[in-house]
Amino acid sequence: MNIQVLQPALPSRDRTNKPELIVLHATAGGTAKSSISHLRGVGLSYHYIITRDAKDTSNSAAAQNTEPVIFQCVPNNKHAFHTGSTIPAPGGQGINKSSIGISLANIQRKTNPEPYPAKQIAALNELLAHLKTAVPSLKFLTIHAVVQPWNRADPLKIDGKKLAEKHGYSWWVPTAEQIKAHTPK
User: Fold this and answer.
1) Pairing mode, strands 70-72 and 48-50
2) Rounded-to-integer distance, Cα 12 and Cα 104, Å
3) Which of 36, 31, 34, 38 minimizes the C-alpha distance to 74?
4) Domain of 148?
5) Where residue 102 sits, what CATH number does that domain have?
6) pLDDT value at position 185?
């Protein structure tokens, strides 16, 4: 697994509680590096962004069959700014305060979505397995579309429930009442 720690890190805050939830995303941008630049400019962040290949190619069709880079953009002991949802995480705290955000570099088109290279999915699986032991407080996994369904669909074509099961996490979905109560008016 090729993890590179981003220096300087993307915006974050100190945690007041241990992370319990992983939220999977897709960047919706060309490369991981261009996404990092955009996030830095708008004050948002993920803990990790996984490239398509070793060269951070801008689309899956051009991706080489090489090991992706996993950029650690925020330390696990800090909270990142990766969801705009006010739905509380399973432990009752805000999602950003209680989670690790992982994003796949991928252009998210609803029609004809970009496929994920096999090595990028393998890197995601390695990272999920690594986090299971490195951060034992992580118990739940979900996707961005589940915690912010009113305006997010990412990551398209990722079966979060299956990934949760494969790695020993509980699949987490907020209740219909929570979604209704926290959907912006």
Assistant:
1) antiparallel
2) 19
3) 36
4) 3-182
5) 3.40.80.10
6) 85
